[in-house]
């Protein structure tokens, strides 16, 4: 993957850079008007003075250099003054412009492709990480991030094919916890977040509202990170009391998950490590620390690692199986990138359907869990504009 690289369209990146420059200038002008004077948006010290002294906003946590202006602190101040939204957008756009839009054309090598470096021993969960450039951090949900993705293109006459493990970490949770509700939902192909919301809310699945499903989704994915009532309230707009009640109802509905998480914490305290389904260990020395904050952070790591780590192991096994299957098939398709739970390949258009079948079989067979490992396959002319392929097409 490092040798092959991936092609980028520097023409579209150049146009994007000019648009971003204008938008960033407009944001700065709006901020200067709101504050009544010019200032350096990129200076934490000048931002501190503006937000907490000039505008009198509630100061967040204190840090060595004064009062924090980090993203979490600013998120909490969004409702207090319109300038906060502008600062957050300015930061997002300047980072995207500097890290990707302006940098990628400079990083193209003679073959017209960008070659990232994959590290195997940086991420503590065991996932591959990407550097120089980091192609795993291109924002997925923002409009500008999606436009950056559209600049990643295949060679002429080829298409990009993406194969993504569907909700792999939740499937691992179902496997390791033995939770009957999760297992049944995945085996029968139900919407797992709707099923969770129905169980927690004590209603039929068809009565679940969009808001209930959204809260259930946050809890489903947050439970493996030790999600607190504060975190759920922040992410959903609930009050802390409502969030606390929702989490309590979740663990009451999914007793096997609650028992599994408690068992993992106890195992880590006793043995000083946790491990993935495949036996790969992570040692957690702070699990018995006297300092409460260190101990709680260690407990979150202990809970998180078996699930994220197992997902990482499955992805690596899936990559090995995919590479082997491609060699044996004689196809021209080539594996280019691994990003989180997704593999990105380049293939001739006529190979798409047999390639989809190969990917589903190779990746789906990487581990034998109590629930199926579903693989979503998409195809497109760039990394953003991709159309899902139904399993029958593969």
Q: What is the total domain count?
A: 2
Helix/strand order, N-terminal first: EHHEEHHHEEEHEEHHHHHHHEEHEEHEE
Envelope shape = globular
Number of helices: 15
What CATH architecture of the largest domain would you give?
Up-down Bundle
Mean pLDDT: 92
Report strand order across the widest sheet. Answer: 11-12-8-13-14
- State the total count of DSSP E strands: 14
What would the CATH topology of the largest domain be? Taq DNA Polymerase, Chain T, domain 4
Largest sheet: 5 strands, antiparallel
Distance between the termini: 24 Å
Looking at CATH, the homologous superfamily of the largest domain is Taq DNA Polymerase, Chain T, domain 4
Verbal overview:
With 394 residues, this protein is of the alpha+beta class. The chain folds into two domains: 6-153, Taq DNA Polymerase, Chain T, domain 4, CATH 1.20.1060; 170-307, DNA polymerase, domain 1 (Orthogonal Bundle). It contains 15 helices and 14 strands. The chain has helices at 10-35, 44-54, 71-77, 82-101, 103-107, 143-149, 168-177, 180-187, 192-201, 210-222, 229-236, 240-253, 255-271, 292-329, 352-364; strands at 6-8, 62-63, 66-67, 113-114, 117-119, 129-131, 152-153, 158-165, 273-275, 281-283, 334-339, 342-348, 375-380, 386-389. The strands form five sheets. Strands 11-12-8-13-14 form a five-stranded antiparallel beta sheet, covered by helices on one side. A hairpin with a 5-residue loop joins β13 (375-380) and β14 (386-389). α1 (10-35) runs antiparallel to α4, α7 crosses α13 and α12 packs across α13 (255-271). It is globular, with a radius of gyration of 23 Å. The two termini are 24 Å apart.
């Amino acid at each position: 993957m490092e040798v092959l690289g991936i092609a980028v369209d520097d023409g579209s990146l150049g146009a994007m850079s000019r648009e971003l420059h204008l938008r960033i200038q407009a944001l700065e002008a709006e901020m200067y008007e709101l504050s009544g004077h010019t200032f350096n948006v990129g200076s934490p010290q000048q931002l501190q003075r503006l937000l907490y002294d000039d505008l009198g906003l509630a100061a967040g946590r204190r840090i060595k250099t004064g009062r924090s202006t980090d993203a979490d602190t600013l998120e909490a101040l969004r409702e207090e003054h319109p300038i906060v939204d502008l600062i957050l957008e300015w930061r997002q756009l300047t980072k995207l412009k500097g890290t990707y839009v302006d940098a990628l054309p400079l990083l193209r090598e003679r073959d017209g492709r960008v070659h990232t470096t994959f590290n195997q021993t940086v991420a503590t969960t065991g996932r591959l990480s990407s550097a120089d450039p980091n192609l795993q951090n291109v924002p997925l949900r923002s409009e500008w991030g999606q436009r950056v993705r559209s600049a990643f293109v295949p060679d002429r006459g080829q298409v990009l094919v993406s194969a993504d493990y569907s909700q792999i970490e939740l499937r691992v949770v179902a496997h390791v916890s033995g939770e009957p509700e999760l297992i049944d939902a995945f085996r029968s192909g139900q919407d797992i977040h709707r099923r969770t919301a129905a169980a927690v809310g004590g209603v039929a699945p068809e009565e679940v509202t969009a808001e209930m499903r959204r809260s259930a989704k946050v809890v489903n994915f947050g439970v493996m990170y030790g999600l607190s009532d504060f975190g759920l309230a922040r992410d959903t707009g609930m009050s802390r009391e409502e969030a606390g009640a929702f989490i309590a109802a979740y663990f009451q509905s999914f007793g096997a998950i609650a028992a599994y998480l408690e068992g993992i914490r106890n195992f880590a305290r006793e043995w000083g490590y946790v491990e993935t389904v495949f036996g790969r260990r992570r040692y957690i020395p702070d699990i018995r620390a006297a300092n409460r904050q260190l101990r709680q952070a260690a407990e979150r790591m202990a809970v998180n690692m078996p699930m994220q780590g197992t997902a990482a192991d499955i992805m690596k096994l899936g990559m090995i199986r995919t590479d082997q299957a491609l060699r044996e098939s004689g196809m021209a398709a080539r594996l280019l990138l691994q990003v989180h739970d997704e593999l990105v390949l380049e293939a001739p258009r006529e190979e798409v359907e047999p390639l989809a079948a190969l990917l589903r079989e190779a990746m789906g067979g990487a581990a034998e869990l109590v629930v199926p490992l579903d693989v979503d396959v998409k195809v497109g002319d760039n990394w953003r504009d991709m159309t899902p392929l139904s399993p029958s097409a593969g």
